[in-house]
Amino acid sequence: MNTLRHAGRTALVTGAGSGIGQATVLRLAKEGATVVGCDVDTAGLEATEQLLAAESCKAHLITADITAQADVDRVVAALPGGWVDLLANVAGVMDHFLPVTELADDVWDRVIAVNLTGPMRLCRAVIPAMRTTGSGAIVNVSSIGGLTGSVAGTAYVSSKHGLIGLTRSLAFLYGPDGIRTNAICPGAVRTNIGRTASPEVEWAYRRMEQSFARTTRTAESDEIAALISWLGSAEANNVNGAVITADGGWMS
Hints:
252 residues; alpha/beta; seven-stranded parallel beta sheet; 7 helices; globular; SDR_fam; oxidoreductase; SDR family oxidoreductase; Sc_DH/Rdtase_CS; NAD(P)-bd_dom_sf
């Protein structure tokens, strides 16, 4: 493994204020990348800044909401030279395990906006420059909820299935241009996504608990960040359109 595999490269990471996004910023910076990271959580970004400083690393961190097109434009405009080698769409929210009969429009709209529309807008923004250079990697963090309906509510499951569809569409359409797009499907990971994961409908959560019993382990955020780094590097040049589970065997 090349520990400076991203030297001279530029990466854009969403969800940079905590969890997998924060771990990805740290890992890519340590591996030599120039990193631009964004999050809605300013305090979280400050924590990321402190962690970077402790590693003698730097990143350009921006408070931004990927559900707002103006913020997406602002983040992309911050990329040095206006181009990026690796886009890691990590930001995500849960839906309180709500079944469709209990699902309010505002929850649906927010979950789809963060988990699917935001990544689409970022892909749309960076792909033209990638096509010009003839290279680029996009890694979308989906979920095992993108493979099954048994681990989250209707909005989350729909958004993560949609993110896999987006991944496969981009891989097919832009692969010939030298752009690779892959998806990762984590299982249980230690992150602060729990803010939107408190169950609100007892009967639905009880049904999902049957699936939770198959969990073998909870991953650390950096374990997922390591996979993002590899997929975004030249070491994975033959990997395009892949949907990779990183769930400790939950879905086996």
